[in-house]
C-alpha cells in the first residue's frame, strides 16, 4: 500500500440529525488546464459521505446522472472503502450550492468524461476515512488496537470475531476520533466491488418507469407552455397576432420573451395546439440567413487566407515537402450535428417568496441559475435548481437556454409552468456540433510517411459557451457586467475559461512517429450556435486523422493496420488496443463475400480505443455487421459499464457517420424529426464485441471515447468495399 | 364530454379535449409518467403502450380512439413486489442507460413475446425497429428479449400482467 498523507483533505463533522459526515474536496487535476487558483478552494468540502445512527449510508453526489453510469461508478468507490454493499447506499443528487462544484471546471458541471477521472482517489479516501473513524471508535470500546478490527457490510468486529458493533452504533463515538495519517486505502487485490460490481443501481427505477426525469416534474397548480421561436438563426419577433390562439380552449396567457412567443395553457396539448394558431412575422435584421454551402464556402475562404494559429510544429514540414517523392492533399467536410437526446428539452419553474425554484434535466445547474437570473429580475442567489434524471445529455444540457426560457415565462405569468420542447423544437433550435473543414497534406518519401500537415477550420466553442459561463465564475458582479465578462472570457484566454482546445483536440496529439508534423487551427465562426457534442473536437478530428492515415497507407500500398502499428511502436497503450481490436476482428483473414473491414484508433479523455468495423452493401445501403472494440481506460471500476459505454458510443458515432446532418437553408434548419434526422435502430445497429485491456492505471473517462474511432473505421471499410474514399460526412453511396 | 377507457385494468373517465393524445392524458391526467414523450409523431416508440394487447404509439392516438378500449402501460405490468420477467431480464442485462426510452422498449418487447414466444433475430428486428434508443442499448435489448424468452421456456408458469393476460 502506498502511504499517502492526505487526511487534510477530509473534514469530519456531526450533522444536526446526528449522522457522522465526512466532507471532502475534489481538488483540481494537473492534467487539465484551469485558470483559477487552486489554493482558494482547498478548505471547503464539496462532497459528503454520511452514516447515520441507524447505520444508513448516504452519499451526496455532485454529478448528474445522464446514462453514463456515474451514479453507479462513484457510489461503488465509496462503498468499497467503507465496506458496505453499494446497493445499500442512498444517493442524493446535490442541490446547487457552492459545496458541490466540479473540481476541473469549478462550476457544477457534468461533462468531459471527468467524473471518474477526477473523483477516483477523493471518494475512496472519504470512504476510507469514515471507515477508519468507525474502526477507531470500536477499538476504543474494546480496548484493542484498531489493527485488530475488521469491517464487513456495515459491521465492525474484532479479530477473533467475538464482538461486533454496527456502524450505526459507532457513529457518535466515531465523530470524536481522529483521522489516521496516512489514510488506509484498500489494496486493489482486496477489492470486493470495484471491478466486480456488475449492476447499475438505477436499473430498477428505469425498467419500471419510476425514474423521475425533468419532464416528469409535477407541481400543484401547474400550467404548460409551448414556445414558438424564430425559425431562422438570430431572428426576432416582428409582429404578433395571437387573437385566434387566445380564443382556444385552455389558453391562460400568451407572452413574449426575448426567445419567442409562449403559449401558456392548462394542458400541454392545448398550449401546443394554440401555438400552431399564432400568426407571427419575424424581424430578420440581425438574422444569419446562411445555407450550409455558404458556411463551407466561408470556411474555405478563411482557410485560404489564414494559415491559422500553429498548435504543433515538429521538425520542418517545408523541408519534408521539398524532399518528398510524392505528396497527398485532401479536404474533409463534416456537417452540423444535433444532439437529439431522447428526452426533449424541458424545464419546470415556479416563483417562491423572493425567488424562483427550477426543476430541470441539466448537466450544469450552476449555469442554470445564471440563465434563470438573466431572464428575470432575480439574482442567481435567489434561484434554486433541482436536478433530475436526464434522458440523455451528450453535451446538449451544458447549455441552459431552456431554463432561461422557462424562467422568463414563469416570471411573466406568475404561475408554476412546465415548458416542453417538441422534437421539432429540439432539432431546429439546438446548439450544434459545429460543421468543420479539414485540409490535410502529407509528404511521402521512399515508401515512408515523412510529413503531416493538418489545418482545421471552424469555430471555438468557448466563444459561445463563455456567454453563459462567464458570470457564473464571478457571481458577485452586477448583471449589467455580464456581457462584458463574456467578452473577457473570450479575450483573456485562460483567465476565466479553460484554454479552448475544442477545435483541435484529438488532432494536435497526432500520435504516429512521423518526424515533421504541423497542426493548425484557422478560426472561422459562421454565427450559428454551436456547443459541446459527445466527444467534442475528437468527434471530427479523429475522423480526419484516421481517414487520412488510411489514405496514406493505401497510397504507400501498405496494410492500414500494419502501417499504423509500425508508427505506434513507442506508444504501447495505443498499440495494445489497436492490436487487440485487430486480433478480435481476425484482421487480414478472409471475410464473408461482400464484407470488408476498416480500422481506426484514437485516444480521448485519456482513454484509448481502437475499433474495427465490418460492413457490406446490401440493396444500395450500408449494412453494419460487426464492430470489434478494444478499450484501455485504466482500471475498469465497473467493467460492464465500460462495455455499455463503448457500445453506446459506437452506435452514436455510426449513427452520425451514416445519417447525421443538420442542414441550413437561409438560416433555417431543414431537419425536423426522426424521419429526416435518422438514427440507427434495432435492425440497422451492428453487433458489438468489446474487450477491456487489464490495467492498474487510474481510471479514465468512458462516456465519450467510444465515439471518435467509429466514424473513420466505417469510412475506411467503405473504401475497401467501393474503392471510393468518403471525404464528406455523412457517408453517401453513389447511386 | 367525458371519455372512458380501461387503464391497467381499471376504468377511468376523463374530461379533456377529445383530440388530446393518449400520451398526455396518461401522463398529466392519470399521473402515469412511465410512458414517455420522445417525438410526438410516431417515429420513436418512447410512448408505446398496449391497446387491447397490441403495441401503439400513444402520442399519435387520440383519446377519442381509445374510448371503451383497454390500455396497458409500464405501470400496469410492474408487479407489486419485484419485477416482471421482462423487466428482470432488462435489469439483469444492464440494458438501461439514460433509461428514457426503456418503458417503450419493454412494452414493444412484451407485445412481441406474447405473439411469438421464441422470436428469431429477424423477428426482434421487425418488432423493435420502431423504438429508438439514442443511448444505443440495442444489443442488450436483443439479449434481454432472448433471455426472457428462454426463461419462459424453462419455466412453464405463465406470468400475468396488470391487464390480466399472460404476458410472457
Ligand atoms: S413519442 Fe410517440 S412515437 Fe415518439
Ligand atoms: S437508454 Fe437512453 S435513449 Fe434508450
CATH topology of the largest domain in chain A: Aldehyde Oxidoreductase, domain 4
Helix-strand pattern of chain B: EEHEEHEHHHHH
Bin the strand percentage of chain B: 5-15%
Report the span from N to C terminus of chain B. Answer: 37 Å
- Write down the Rg of chain B: 15 Å
Please give the oligomerization state of what you see: heterodimer
**Model regions low in confidence, pLDDT < 50 over at least 5 residues of chain A:** 1-6, 26-46, 96-109, 487-497
List unreliable stretches of 5+ residues of chain B.
Answer: 156-168
Overall SS class of chain A: alpha+beta
Tally of structural domains of chain B: 2
Question: What Rg of chain A is obtained from the alpha carbons, in whole angstroms?
Answer: 27 Å
What's the number of extended β-strand segments of chain A? 28
Q: Strand order within the widest sheet of chain A?
A: 11-12-9-19-16-17-18
Distance between the termini of chain A: 63 Å
Number of strands of chain B: 5
Q: Report the helical percentage of chain B.
A: 25-40%
Architecture of the largest domain in chain B, CATH level 2?
Orthogonal Bundle
CATH topology value of the largest domain in chain B: DNA polymerase, domain 1
- The spatial strand order of the largest sheet of chain B comes to 2-1-5-3-4
CATH superfamily of the largest domain in chain B: [2Fe-2S]-binding domain
Features of this protein?
heterodimer; A: 735 residues; alpha+beta; Aldehyde Oxidoreductase, domain 4; seven-stranded mixed beta sheet; five-stranded mixed beta sheet; 18 helices; 29% helix; disordered N terminus; B: 168 residues; Ubiquitin-like (UB roll); DNA polymerase, domain 1; 7 helices; 38% helix; binds FE2/S2 (inorganic) cluster
Amino acid at each position: 500500500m502506498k502511504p499517502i498523507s492526505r487526511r487534510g483533505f477530509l473534514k469530519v463533522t456531526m450533522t444536526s440529525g446526528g449522522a457522522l459526515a465526512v466532507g471532502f474536496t475534489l481538488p483540481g487535476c494537473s492534467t487539465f488546464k484551469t485558470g483559477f487558483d487552486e489554493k482558494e478552494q482547498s478548505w471547503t468540502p464539496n462532497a459528503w459521505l454520511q452514516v447515520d445512527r441507524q447505520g444508513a449510508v448516504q452519499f451526496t453526489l455532485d454529478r448528474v446522472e445522464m446514462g453514463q453510469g456515474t451514479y453507479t461508478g462513484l457510489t461503488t468507490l465509496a462503498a468499497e472503502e467503507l465496506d458496505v454493499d453499494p446497493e445499500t447506499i442512498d444517493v442524493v443528487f446535490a442541490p446547487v450550492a457552492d459545496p458541490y462544484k466540479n473540481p476541473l471546471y469549478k462550476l457544477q458541471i457534468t461533462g468531459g468524461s471527468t467524473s471518474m477521472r477526477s473523483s477516483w482517489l477523493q471518494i475512496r479516501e472519504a470512504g476510507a476515512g469514515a471507515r477508519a473513524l468507525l474502526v477507531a471508535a470500536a477499538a476504543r470500546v474494546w480496548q484493542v488496537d484498531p489493527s485488530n478490527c475488521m469491517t464487513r457490510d456495515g459491521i465492525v468486529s474484532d479479530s477473533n470475531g467475538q464482538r461486533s458493533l454496527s456502524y450505526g452504533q459507532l457513529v457518535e463515538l466515531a465523530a470524536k476520533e481522529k483521522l489516521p495519517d496516512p489514510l488506509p486505502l484498500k489494496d486493489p487485490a482486496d477489492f470486493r466491488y470495484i471491478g466486480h460490481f456488475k449492476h447499475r443501481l438505477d436499473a430498477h427505477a428505469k425498467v419500471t418507469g419510476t425514474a423521475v426525469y425533468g419532464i416528469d416534474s409535477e407541481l400543484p397548480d401547474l400550467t404548460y407552455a409551448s414556445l414558438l421561436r424564430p425559425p431562422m438563426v438570430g431572428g426576432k419577433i416582428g409582429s404578433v397576432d395571437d387573437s385566434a390562439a387566445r380564443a382556444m380552449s385552455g389558453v391562460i396567457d400568451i407572452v413574449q420573451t426575448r426567445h419567442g412567443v409562449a403559449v401558456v395553457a392548462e394542458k400541454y396539448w392545448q398550449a401546443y395546439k394554440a401555438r400552431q394558431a399564432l400568426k407571427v412575422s419575424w424581424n430578420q435584421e440581425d438574422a444569419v440567413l446562411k445555407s450550409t454551402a455558404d458556411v463551407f464556402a466561408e470556411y474555405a475562404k478563411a482557410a485560404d487566407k489564414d494559415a491559422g494559429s500553429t498548435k504543433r510544429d515538429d521538425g520542418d514540414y517545408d523541408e519534408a515537402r521539398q524532399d518528398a517523392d510524392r505528396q497527398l492533399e485532401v479536404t474533409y467536410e463534416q456537417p452540423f450535428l444535433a444532439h437529439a437526446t431522447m428526452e426533449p428539452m424541458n424545464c419546470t419553474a415556479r416563483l417562491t417568496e423572493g425567488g424562483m425554484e427550477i426543476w430541470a434535466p441539466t448537466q450544469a445547474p450552476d449555469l442554470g441559475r445564471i440563465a434563470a437570473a438573466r431572464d428575470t429580475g432575480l439574482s442567481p442567489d435567489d434561484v434554486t435548481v433541482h436536478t433530475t434524471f436526464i434522458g440523455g445529455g451528450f453535451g446538449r444540457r451544458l447549455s441552459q437556454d431552456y431554463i432561461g426560457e422557462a424562467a422568463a415565462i414563469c416570471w411573466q405569468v406568475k404561475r408554476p409552468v412546465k415548458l416542453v420542447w417538441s422534437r421539432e423544437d429540439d432539432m431546429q433550435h439546438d446548439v450544434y456540433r459545429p460543421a468543420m473543414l479539414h485540409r490535410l497534406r502529407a509528404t511521402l518519401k521512399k515508401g515512408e510517411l515523412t510529413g503531416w500537415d493538418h489545418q482545421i477550420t471552424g469555430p471555438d466553442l468557448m466563444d459561445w459557451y463563455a456567454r453563459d459561463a462567464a458570470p457564473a465564475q464571478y457571481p458577485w458582479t452586477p448583471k449589467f457586467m455580464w456581457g462584458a465578462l463574456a467578452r473577457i472570457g473570450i479575450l483573456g484566454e485562460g483567465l476565466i475559461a479553460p484554454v479552448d482546445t475544442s477545435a483541435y483536440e484529438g488532432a494536435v496529439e497526432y500520435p504516429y512517429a512521423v518526424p515533421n508534423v504541423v497542426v493548425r487551427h484557422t478560426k472561422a465562426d459562421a454565427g450559428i450556435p454551436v456547443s459541446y457534442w459527445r466527444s467534442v473536437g475528437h468527434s471530427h478530428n479523429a475522423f480526419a486523422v484516421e481517414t487520412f492515415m488510411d489514405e496514406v497507407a493505401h497510397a504507400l500500398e501498405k496494410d492500414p493496420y500494419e502501417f499504423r502499428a509500425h508508427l505506434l511502436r513507442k506508444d504501447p497503450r495505443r498499440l495494445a488496443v489497436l492490436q487487440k481490436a485487430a486480433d478480435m476482428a481476425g484482421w487480414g483473414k478472409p471475410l464473408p463475400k461482400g464484407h470488408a473491414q476498416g480500422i481506426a484508433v484514437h485516444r480521448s479523455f485519456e482513454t484509448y480505443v481502437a475499433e474495427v468495423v465490418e460492413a457490406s452493401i446490401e440493396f444500395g445501403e450500408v449494412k453494419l455487421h460487426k464492430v470489434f472494440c478494444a478499450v484501455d481506460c485504466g482500471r475498469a471500476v465497473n467493467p460492464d459499464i465500460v462495455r455499455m459505454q463503448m457500445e453506446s458510443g459506437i452506435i452514436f458515432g455510426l449513427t452520425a457517420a451514416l445519417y447525421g446532418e443538420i442542414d441550413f437553408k437561409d438560416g433555417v434548419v431543414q431537419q425536423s424529426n426522426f424521419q429526416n434526422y435518422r438514427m440507427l435502430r434495432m435492425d440497422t445497429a451492428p453487433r458489438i464485441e468489446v474487450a477491456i485491456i487489464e490495467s492498474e492505471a487510474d481510471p479514465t473517462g468512458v462516456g465519450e471515447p467510444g465515439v471518435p474511432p467509429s466514424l473513420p473505421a466505417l469510412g475506411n471499410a467503405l473504401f475497401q468495399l467501393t474503392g471510393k474514399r468518403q471525404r464528406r460526412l455523412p457517408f453517401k453511396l453513389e447511386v | 364530454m367525458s371519455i372512458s377507457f380501461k387503464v391497467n385494468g381499471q376504468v377511468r373517465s376523463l374530461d379533456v379535449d377529445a383530440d388530446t393524445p393518449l400520451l398526455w392524458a396518461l401522463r398529466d391526467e392519470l399521473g402515469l409518467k412511465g410512458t414517455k414523450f420522445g417525438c410526438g409523431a410516431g417515429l420513436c416508440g418512447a410512448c408505446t403502450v398496449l391497446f387491447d394487447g397490441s403495441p401503439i404509439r400513444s402520442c399519435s392516438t387520440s383519446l377519442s380512439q381509445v374510448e371503451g378500449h383497454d390500455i396497458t402501460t409500464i405501470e400496469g405490468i410492474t408487479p407489486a413486489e419485484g419485477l416482471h420477467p421482462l423487466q428482470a431480464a432488462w435489469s439483469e442485462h444492464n440494458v438501461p442507460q439514460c433509461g428514457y426510452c426503456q418503458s417503450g422498449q419493454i412494452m414493444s418487447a412484451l407485445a412481441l413475446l406474447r405473439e411469438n414466444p421464441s422470436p428469431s433475430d429477424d423477428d426482434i428486428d421487425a418488432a423493435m425497429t420502431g423504438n429508438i434508443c439514442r443511448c444505443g442499448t440495442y444489443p442488450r435489448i436483443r439479449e434481454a428479449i432472448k433471455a426472457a424468452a428462454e426463461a419462459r421456456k424453462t419455466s412453464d408458469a405463465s406470468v400475468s400482467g396488470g391487464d390480466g393476460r399472460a404476458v410472457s
